Amino acid sequence: MSDASAPAVHHGPPTTFLRKHVFSLDHKVIGKQYYALALVAVFMGMVLSWLMRIHLVWPNSPIPGLQFLSKVGAPGGVMTPEYYLSLLTMHGTLMVFFVLTNAPFAAFGNYFLPIQIGAEDMAFPRFNMMSFWTTFVAFCLLVLAFFVPDGPPISGWTAYAPLSAVGSDAGPGLGMGQTLWGLSIFVFCIASLLGSLNFIATTLDLRTKGMTLSRMPMCTWAWFITSCIALLAFAVLLPATLLLILDRVAGTSFFIPAGLVISDKLEPHQGGSPLLWQHLFWFFGHPEVYIAILPAMGIVSHILINSLRRPLLSAKVLIYCMMTIGFLSYMVWGHHMFVSGMNPFSSLVFSFPTLLITIPATIMTLIWLGSIYGSRLRITAASLFALGFISMFVSGGVSGFFLAQPSIDIYLHATYFVVGHFHMVMGVAAIFGVFAGTYFWFPKMTGHMMSESLGKLHFWLTFIGTYCIFMPFHYLGLAGNVRRYSAFTDDFLVPLVPVHKFITYAALFTGAAQLIFLYNLIHSRFWGAPAPANPWECTSLEWTMPSPPPWDNFGGKHPVVYHDPYQYGVKSSTGDYIMQDSPEEAKVSA
Amino acid sequence: MGKLFAVVLVVIALASAVPIVMHTWAPPVDISTHGHAIDEQLNDTMVEAGLSFLAAQILLAFFVFKSAGRTSSDEIRTFPGGARVMVIAALVLVGTEILALGVLGQKAWANVYFKPAAPDALQVQAQAGQFAFYFRYAGADGKFGTIHPDKIDEGNSNFFGLDPANDVDSRDDIVTGELAIPTNREVHLMMHAKDVGHSFYVRELRIQQDFVPGLDLSVHFTATKPGKYEIVCTQLCGLGHYNMKAYLNVLSPEDFDQWLKQKASEQ
Amino acid sequence: MQTKQIFTGLVLSLVCPALTFGGTVSGKVTYTGTPAKQKTIDMSKEPSCQKQYTTPPTTETVVTGPGNVLENVVVYVSAGAPDEKSAPTQAVTFTQKGCRYLPHVLVMETGQELKVLNDDQTSHNIHPLAKINREWNKSQPPGSPPIVDKFDKEEFISVKCNIHPWMHGYFAVLKTSHYSVTGDSGTFSLPNLPPGKYTITAWQEDYGPMTQDVTITGNETKNVDFTFKAKPY
Predict the structure, then answer these.
(1) Cβ neighbours of residue A169 under 8 Å, at least 6 residues apart?
(2) Does residue B261 surpass a pLDDT of 50?
(3) With an 8 Å Cβ cutoff, is A573 touching chain C?
């Protein structure tokens, strides 16, 4: 792991249209392709959530036009219970896989990791191209599930067996759609493994002269650690989905025990274990949520340092915390299974590392907070979202305290408390990281500035809106509101519907606010003010190149790095910062 | 705008805390013998988590308020003690918190899961199947008949697949759609899944346990207050999941005996 | 000469309509022995349905009437009848009300339109467990339009609602229009049978089918009774 860079697998400049814009080997184009895919997926996922929220509050009312999306799922526009569950499943799958794994990690990571370490591209550009297009194939397989006769799958993004394994006997929504889901995830795993291999090889071998590991920016560290986690996690999900597909189409019984009677039929399977699916899935599933959040932590740290105009209290500690979180993430999967029927002693064993992971997360939060103290904080759309991330991460993380304890989980498991927890700590926080990264890096990626005032407006509406949506979820959970219900029809839950109404209005409002972001994105791409090379006065290598960068990043040259990326608050010829590739030494700090 | 962020954040943090402090939405009254330990744990955690939440948000707001808009003419200050203080604070505060919660909390868990059912507990079998719960009492002979999955005939009310023609033990089994139990007597609920995964959740009992196809699971509990409570399924089991419920009917011992006799006559 | 014959035929057909419309097979369906006790249905999980009943309803697997008669028995011509040219245009209706199916046994012809209505405040899902025809499973929330479908092949199809496990009924999909379902008198009548040899089948959902052959020569009424042996369980 020396800091001398090995030559990347060279590729010449793109000449044909296909090579330039479609099957590009350029990590920057691939990064933008991932971003575009995530953008499509997030808008789809958001629309699905609107439909779900509207149905929850007005279950027997027709939703005009829904019958054109699915005649069977919404006859006359009235959503059937199974179609609600289909939308729920697709919402979760799209968001976790195609948004949260794609945007902060694959999109920004692909674009900026090679640049930030001074490389001309990823270690394996062809693998890189394949990993995007494989992800695209996975996306198409998933979306295809909307159009099969039996509809999309209804077993949730977690696809617990035997419900997901036995097929249509268990009801509508468990036919071809569920098989397509399995295939989509199977293909997605392959894409992720290719991507992770690339990230790891690139980070270890392609760093330019002077770019020691400790001089890598925070986000590069986060992408590197994330790809190490992802390599093991997706390697487990891959065979697990294969076994599920085999149970569905090949008559195997990995997850299906004997003696099941479903819809008056005795199933022919025997010997399988539903808990096996849960263990395999969550062994992947828990690290997956850290795959979703760690890149955002890295991006936010990077932006925060730049916005504070001073180094963090300790970047090294932050990096060690991220590594610790990555390591511990493999010890805690059983906390999703406290009341699953596994040995109750295991539940206690799993709860300890789960509680323990609070410590590095707290250290990180305190370091961020402590770094803001005494800083020269610049408020931009990007830094607002970075600060918002810290707030969201705290709010979402604190509810984890409850769920980490098996005794409390007896009451809170499978309630809206869990839904509030993961939406805040993973969903909203990671999305805030993506927004922050977008506002920060858009000028570099496109050569245009985004509208700062629209960006700030977008922040306020989203920050307040997401709190209005997800904080009440915790109250509902405390009251005993069960999750994954398509309607609240019984005496216990009906009195809670007014809370759901409030949440629905907040969700629709916040969703509408995202159109401001979309408008800003598209308008600025074509008509935004021209962007200088370094509008934020940032020290890392991406800001040494023109906006947008040329196809070969550093023009065939290898940059030489003299500093870590935390040279802020110093008196220098450029102002209060020194670029990583500047040989200038910091004078006494300002 | 940094100062605005700080103010808005404090408002949001305090507003979020209000429903918690006011107990606007809280767990329903506990009717079990083991639940108070869980409730105590929940309350302790709420205090610690709540204080951490407020402290972090207010600190974030305060630091942003103070540092936003400071220019290069303002001196950059380092938090006293630097990163070391943060690491120690996290280790000490969070460390003790989680040790306390973890160690103390295991007792509440052990009460539910590590104690075996009392030998004289009322034995009831619960079967979860798309999309209803059915319950079985052993009848006068005290024995449960064998379940024959191939004989399940729901249209004929043979939910458990009993074979009274050939299986004598099953002839006096009492199958019901509601779970009635007497107060202050331990109930041992044996849980059988007919088709896919389900779960047994009674908020007031502070009990939640999955039904897993292929596994013989059980829970035991004692209810102290008569009344009608919902048993709801909390493990996604298909389209009817939202409508999968039964009622727990906690009766006085005399009323329970009468109810059981009535149900036996309806078999 | 020809005109006279035609005229005679026309007068006869006006005066004696029974001559052109054929014979009738009628009878009674009874049972011997003790049928299984019909169990009380516990609807406690669906209060909106439960409260529609003053006394809880019972299962309808074997519905008996005074005089040891069996209700809900489908009696039909299973062989010998000429092929139907087309399915009737009138749809048959299957209603979900009070969390039960009305009627419990619904007869329809192949290709005849089936309309399923939901009169309840709760969602139901209709799951005809067809083995010869295409099996389907559709939800019907309250307020959604009727479900319309049809079956192309002859089959006795068990129908269930997955949401309410006690809900059970049958679709008897027949090729013939000559059918009758016994009511509380246990009687059936199959009129308008042209002369020929026929097999009459009586089908009871728990006991299965019983057949008898009968020959119609003119427009007489032939009596065919069926007696099923009841099962105690």
Answers:
(1) A262, A263, A265, A267
(2) yes
(3) no
- ∠ at Cα A240 (A236, A245), nearest 5°? 150
CB–CB of B196 and A344 under 8 A? no
Q: What mean pLDDT comes out for the span C182-195? A: 92
| Cα–Cα distance for residue pair B223/B180, rounded to 1 Å | 11
Q: Does A209 touch chain B (CB under 8 A)?
A: no
Nearest to A60 among C139, C141, C145 (CB): C141
Asked: is C85-175 a CATH 2.60.40.420 domain? The reply is yes
Q: How far is CA A301 from the centre of its chain?
A: 16
Cα separations in angstroms, A192 against A27, A196, A235, A462: 15, 6, 9, 30
| Nearest chain C residue to A172, by CA | C137
| Mean of pLDDT values over A353-382 | 95
Q: Is B126 on the interface with A (CB under 8 A)?
A: no
Say if residue C10's pLDDT is above 70.
no
Cβ of C50 under 8 Å from any chain B Cβ?
A: no
Q: Tell me the per-residue pLDDT of A532-543, one tens digit each, with 9 for 90 and over.
A: 999 999 999 999
Q: Would you call B104 an interface residue with chain A, using a CB distance cutoff of 8 Å?
A: no
Tokens of C209: 């089918």
Identity of residue A279: H
ipTM of the complex: 0.96
Confidence label for A559 from pLDDT (cuts 50, 70 and 90): very high
Three-class SS of A357-426:
CHHHHHHHHHHHHHHHCCCCECCCHHHHHHHHHHHHHHHHHHHHHHHCCHHHHHHHCCEHHHHHHHHHHH
Checking if the pLDDT of A556 tops 50, the result is yes
Q: Does B165 touch chain C (CB under 8 A)?
A: yes
- DSSP letter assigned to residue C185: T
CA separation for the pair A268, A257 (Å, rounded)? 9
Whether the per-residue pLDDT at A524 is higher than 90: the answer is yes
* Contact list, B244 vs chain C (CB under 8 Å): 45
Domain B122-265 sits in CATH at 2.60.40.420
Task: Decide if A377 and B209 are in contact by the 8 Å CB cutoff.
Answer: no
How many CA atoms lie less than 13 Å away from B53 in the CB half-sphere?
26
Partner-chain contact B236 A482, CB within 8 Å: no
Whether the Cβ atoms of residue B45 and residue A356 lie closer than 8 Å to each other: no
User: What is residue C14's predicted lDDT score, i.e. its pLDDT?
Assistant: 56
| Domain C23-73+188-233 grouped into CATH 2.60.40 | yes
The whole-angstrom distance between A423's CA and the closest CA on chain C is 29
**DSSP conformation letters of A429-447:** HHHHHHHHHHHHHHHHHHS
Q: Residue A399's closest chain B neighbor by CA?
A: B49
Q: Which residues of A touch B48 (CB under 8 A)?
A: 401
User: B114 near B156, Cβ under 8 Å?
Assistant: no
- Which chains have at least 3 CB atom pairs separated by less than 8 Å from chain A? B, C
- Percent of residues, chain A, with pLDDT higher than 70: 98
Report pTM. Answer: 0.94
Q: By the 8 A CB rule, do C216 and C25 touch? A: yes
**Contact residues on chain C for A171, CB-CB shorter than 8 A:** 125, 137, 162
Residues of chain C with CATH 2.60.40.420: 85-175
To the nearest whole number, what is the mean pLDDT of chain C? 89
Sequence ranges of the domains in chain B:
2-69+78-113, 122-265
Tell me the domains of chain A and their CATH numbers: 30-258+267-577 (1.20.210.10)
Arithmetic mean of pLDDT, B205-212: 97
Among A63, A66, A71, A82, pick the best mutation site for testing chain C contact (most C Cβ within 10 A): A82
Q: What is the pLDDT of residue C176?
A: 92
